[in-house]
Amino acid sequence: MTSLAVGSLVWVENSDIAWIDGEVVQVKGQDINVLCTSGKTVAVKASNVYPKDAEAPSCGVDDMTKLAYLHEPGVLQNLRSRYDMNEIYTYTGNILIAVNPFRKLPHLYDSHMMAQYKGAAFGELSPHPFAVADAAYRLMINEGISQSILVSGESGAGKTESTKLLMQYLAYMGGRAAAEGRTVEQKVLESNPVLEAFGNAKTVRNNNSSRFGKFVEIQFDRKGRISGAAVRTYLLERSRVCQVSDPERNYHCFYMLCAAPPEDIQRYKLGNPRTFHYLNQSNCYELDAIDDSKEYTATRRAMDVVGISSVEQDAIFRVVAAILHLGNIEFCKGKEIDSSVPKDEKSWFHLRTAAELLMCDEKLLEDSLCKRIIVTRDETITKCLDPESAALSRDALAKIVYSRLFDWIVNKINSSIGQDPDSKFLIGVLDIYGFESFKTNSFEQFCINLTNEKLQQHFNQHVFKMEQEEYTKEEINWSYIEFVDNQDILDLIEKKPGGIIALLDEACMFPRSTHETFAQKLYQTFKNHKRFSKPKLSRSDFTICHYAGDVTYQTELFLDKNKDYVVAEHQALLTASKCSFVSGLFPPLAQESSKSSKFSSIGSRFKQQLLALLETLSSTEPHYIRCVKPNNLLKPSIFENKNVLQQLQCGGVMEAIRISCAGYPTKKPFGEFVDRFGLLAPEVLDGSSDEVAACKKLLEKVGLQGYQIGKTKVFLRAGQMAELDTRRSEVLGRSASIIQRKIRSYLARRSFIMLRRSALQIQSVCRGQLARKVYDGLRREAASLRIQRHLRMHLARKAFKDLCSSAVSIQTVMRGMAARNELCFRRKTSAAIIIQSQCRKFLAQLHYMKLKKAVIATQCAWRVRVAQKELRKLKMAARETGALQAAKNKLEKQVEELTWRLQLEKRMRVDMEEAKTKENAKLQSALQDMQLQFKETKELLAKEHEAVRKAAEVVPVIQQVPVVDHMMLEKLTSENEKLKAMVSSLEQKIGETEEKFEETNKISEERLKQASEAESKIVQLKTVVYRLEEKILDMESENQVLRQQTLLNTPVKKISEHLQIPVTPNLGNGYHIGELNKSNESQSVTPVKKVGIESDGKLQRSNLERQHENVDALINCVAKDIGFSHGKPVAALTIYKCLLHWKSFEAERTNVFDCLIQMMGSAIENEENNGHMAYWLSNTSALLFLLQKSLKASGANGATPSQKPPTPTSLFGRMTMSFRSSPSTNNLAAAAALAVVRKVEGKYPALLFKQQLAAYVEKIYGIIRDNLKKELSSLLSLCIQAPRTSKGGVLRSGRSFGKDSPSTHWQGIVDSLNTLLCTLKENFVPPVLIQKIFTQTFSYINVQLFNSLLLRRECCTFSNGEYVKAGLAELELWSCQTKEEYAGSSWDELKHIRQAVGFLVIHQKYRISYDEISNDLCPILSVQQLYRICTLYWDDNYNTRSVSPDVISSMRVLMTEDSNDAVSSSFILDDNSSIPFSVDDLSKSLQEKEFSEVKPADELLQNPAFEFLHE
């Protein structure tokens, strides 16, 4: 490498960490010495090192095609740098590399993050799987081409999780609302946990390793909605069912089932997984942070979603349990030669359980495991199997059952999801195993590596195609680029008839073939093939040179694993199962195939599946995600260079880079190229040339050959970038020498000036010290004289003060004595005066009371005469009231009597129960005593009998005295009869007691019924009393009317004529004629009510029709834009006055409110017209304010205790209310009617209308706010990044490369804000609503700008910070110029973006500590946000550094502590779209007096029916 010079930075190979960087210290031709960063100096060849980009950002680049040097160590260092900052995703062109973080990062995958990537251009935001999925979706919609996303990587690299994220985003983009049942996207997403439960297991490299390949086809309709899906699976690892190596696990479903609820475990006769042979081959039974019982529940729930019924789920887990029981069947030698039987009772138990779960015959199951039936032409031979063969037969049965079960689940998922035959597009997501190379590589690794060879060929062709398309797009001359084609490896494996798979199938067809004969056949066939070799010291292994490296395969199990057949006995057994599910897994075969085991090649079938997969991929536009596992420990924050490098090679990433390097590996945009290398030829920047011409002149000046100038980029050959950097380093070195010389000169001059200044300061200090000493002596002499003078003065003053204080003390005592004498005299005088005044007061008061008593007696006598006259007049009207009062009192007495009787019954019941309890206790004790006596007597009688028996057996002399014996017998017999009589009498008493007890129970039950009936009667009586009270209140109101009539001297006829008038409005507010008649019939007939009942029916119907016409006239009027009056909406006040006059608020039922709501809904259909929306926001908010001030809830108490009930329910009561409100009775009521807002009692329709009106205010507010957000969203995407300029934005000529003015977009935002503000002001929208709109809008601006800043690295620059800061100054100026009542705290809502931009424009960030950043500069930002900004920051003008590594480390520690909290880990802000105000806020901002001068609509003022609006 001729361009290397001393001081150049290079990469050197290292055996420990793959590559290490260093600096060239010596160059000797092709031999160079490099000082590594480890401190060692190594000697290497120049051809073995790679140049290092000294200006590469420490945080890496998000797209590795932007690297100045695209080579192996550069790629590795870039991935490591980004991984250290938790940036796990990186692009290589359109390929996404995902490094597994081995920790949860929930903030990267929430719905808000999906919304950020929705519609964003590829590469605009940070690398992410959502970006790949969005690009595929957009291409499918726009171009009409099906897409595919290929996710690959080794086990544990994160393929399955990446696939889940892709499917999650596609479901987010193509989801639709479910009309019924589950949606397609829900089923697709929930199929993942089901397939993981039955197809994933723990391996050495991964705790959740997919042991099968998966290709998910998601179908879309023409609108981009998901219309169907299908899941294809490849090569399930069957052998894992029976063979598990330590520390791996079997499939997850086995452990889930063992951790199922107790009822399921009992049903399937399961237990601890350690007791099952298929699970205890490994010591690993549990996974960290995984609860198998919860996973079991989640899997059952996912099965429900994908359409697997509960019956089918039970059948599935019954089959899984049967497989576990099959594994526990052990065999021993039978009675016959080479025969076998179950070993012990435990094996028989598991055999019976397996037969029971599979619902097949126990004997047939035993025979299928221990015997084989050989069918010949002449006879059928039954062959017994030895114990080893029987165990193999058992494992074969378990594997084929599990394989069929897995295939059934996949087919069920596909049939449940459904496929759309009309679908034109699809997006396929391929989750396939990565390249595998272990110590022992068997048939599974052979098939997996064949898959990767196929996909690598497809990948190479795609990368080559993309590279050529870029050259064509840039219109440069290019020649064919050669790349390594692996077609020879594919021919070696799958070519017919001489490929490895063909030879394997041929060997499987011959019964006597073994793995050794198969290996010898391979050695003979491919001995001259360059990709095939035979390892030394091995008889049956072979090695294939794959694209990712050599892999040695062991052929011991190749033949067995390639055979896919079902043993005939197993087939017959399971086909005959009584369980339809099990028999459905094994449908009956054809006649000829059922007689014997038929061979089917797994390798050939897998090859056909691969061909079909490649055909599908070839018909789609591919996208690639390469997953990388950073370490084998499966722990976070560990990056093993060699391991990652090997995976990049296996994944084809390095091959893609090699293809890129074969052409033009360095591609620099013109602006960046001029910025970086313009100093090599400063003269090319002079004049008025553009960037393209500047690049051409610069390249011609430096004398490079072979480069290409495209339309937007400069294309350089390999090595040319290093040569340019070397020349640039030389120029920078010379410039550095000049700068150093100038700096040294400056430092020497500054040192001389400082020395001279110091000498002058020392001299001045010495002179000052001498002068201070002379001055100090003079000052001490003057001080001594002053001290003497002050001492003499002090002594004289002290003597004078003592003399003065003595005189004052004497004077004080004398004055106090004189004052006390004077006080005593004054007290005596004042006491005498008080006594005299009290005496005079008592005499006057006594005279007054006598006079007052006489006057009152006279007045009472006169009032009695007047009252007696009045009483005679009112007796007729009061008779009904008295009768009702008497009825009420009578009912109250009845209630009290019934209550007393009920309490008496309760007391009697309690007393009776207590007596009964005592009597029972006495009887029981007596019974026990009698039983005890009976028992004692019985025992005594038994003893007597025994004594008699013994006496009879003794000497006959005793038998000569028969008299004594007869007496004893008679005595005992009489006592026995007495006891029997006593027992019978006790039994009789007990029977009588039980009968009494039953009778008492019956009586108590009857009394309980009577008590409950009495309680119900009390409730009814209380209801009647309540109704009577209402009637009494109505009668009292009638009495008041009569009293007013008497006082006004008005005849009853005139009152009746007057009271007929207010009936009509009440009918218009929901009161129906039937209701009025009913209420009239329920009341006692009075003369006034008779007048109300005699209203004409036709008149009432005409009034109703007139009322409907009035409502229609109001609706037609206010539906138009009738403007404003004195700054308030006319329509709102007009509606309110009409509702108030019609008394609609007090109506129980009315349709006026429904008409108004329908009118408002139709009026705001045009949501895009902000002027129209503002007009209705002003009207609805004003009307809501009036309702809030006017309505009070029904049943609210008045201000004083004496206030009557709010609204009488009878017709007479409503008439009375209208009579009271008439101007002729009360001047105060008339004055209240003239007020704009009146308190009324709101019924349910009015309160409902108020709620609906509040909802419309919120809806219109949200529409105006969202319209403004939509208008600003397009401008905000342009405001976050400054227009691209070169060298500060200006060439030497002063002409800018950037075409757009930086302030244009920001001015557009300000114009939009001003336009909306004017519209809202013109429509007199309340200031509180305007303030909330702009506050939320500024919050939206803050969220959008801040999120874009964190998601786009090109925005986190110094110059971009200055650009955004200037734009924010425009918004600050707008906030200051706008009145505070409209702008409010809008400017404060931009705190996140203000602090972030303030941090970007700070110089010397590396000197700032974390405490200064978090406390002073950016206190509002979280640690995650600060870390993101610090790591993304780069200076495009001065190449200044970001914060120090210590600050980054501190942030990383704090982030690790909060990593488990999804909320705290998120660095993205979320926009708040809630409604930020309430009705109370609106009420506080307006005043009632503001509506006093508002005039109603002119159109209605001319209508005679609306004359009340003139008031």
Automatic annotation (TrEMBL):
Myosin N-terminal SH3-like domain span: 5-54
Pfam families tied to this protein: DIL, IQ, Myosin_head, Myosin_N
Binding site for ATP: 153-160
Keywords annotated in UniProt: Actin-binding, ATP-binding, Calmodulin-binding, Coiled coil, Motor protein, Myosin, Nucleotide-binding, Repeat
Keyword Hydrolase listed: no
UniProt GO MF annotations: actin filament binding; ATP binding; calmodulin binding; microfilament motor activity
Keyword Transport belongs to the record: no
Coiled coil: 874-940, 969-1045
Gene Ontology CC, one term: myosin complex
Region of interest (Actin-binding), residue spans: 610-632
Biological process according to GO: actin filament organization; actin filament-based movement
Domain Myosin motor, first and last residues per copy: 59-729
Domain Dilute: 1154-1457
Family: Belongs to the TRAFAC class myosin-kinesin ATPase superfamily. Myosin family. Plant myosin class XI subfamily.
PANTHER family assigned: MYOSIN, MYOSIN-6
Protein name: ARABIDOPSIS MYOSIN 2, MYOSIN X1 2, myosin 2, MYOSIN XI-6
Native source organism of the sequence: Hibiscus trionum
